[in-house]
Design goal:
Keywords: Signal. The protein is mostly helical. The chain is built from four helices and no strands. Helices cover about 70% and strands about 0% of the residues. The longest helix has about 40 residues.
Length: about 130
């Protein structure tokens, strides 16, 4: 095997391992979740509270290595809100669109993680 092919295989293996580890950590946290408000599945994107009320409440990651939602998402969402009036009309439109896009993308995790969790539990029950 060529050196570049070996490196590509190793890099792919590492990335897959890291993704698997993060997914497993999120699934483990999801087992502890409470009932999710139906509005959390379809965020309007007009408030930063979605990060704590919906995402963090259902998939608790704060103060862990996977705390993107709070450490980055909520932090910058609030920063944009505090400075909202400094943006041009086009800038405000962009901020609103990005806020909604991020929240809708994160909301998709509920479905993905639920399907993966149910599949994992089913597979373990069969074994």
């Amino acid at each position: 095997m060529h050196r570049s092919a070996s490196f590509a295989l190793l890099a792919t293996t590492v990335v897959l391992f890291l993704l698997s580890s993060s997914a497993n950590a999120l699934i483990a946290r999801q087992k502890r979740q409470t009932t999710i408000d139906p509005d959390c599945y379809t965020p309007a994107g007009n408030s930063c509270t979605w990060y704590t009320v919906c995402l963090e409440a259902s998939i608790p990651c704060q103060n862990t290595s996977d705390d993107y939602a709070i450490a980055y998402g909520l932090k910058f969402c609030n920063l944009y809100v505090r400075n909202y009036n400094k943006f041009s009309p086009q800038g405000k439109q962009w901020v609103d669109a990005v806020r909604k896009c991020l929240q809708v993308t994160f909301a998709h995790l509920y479905d993905v993680l639920t399907v993966k969790y149910v599949t994992t539990v089913t597979d373990e029950a069969v074994v």
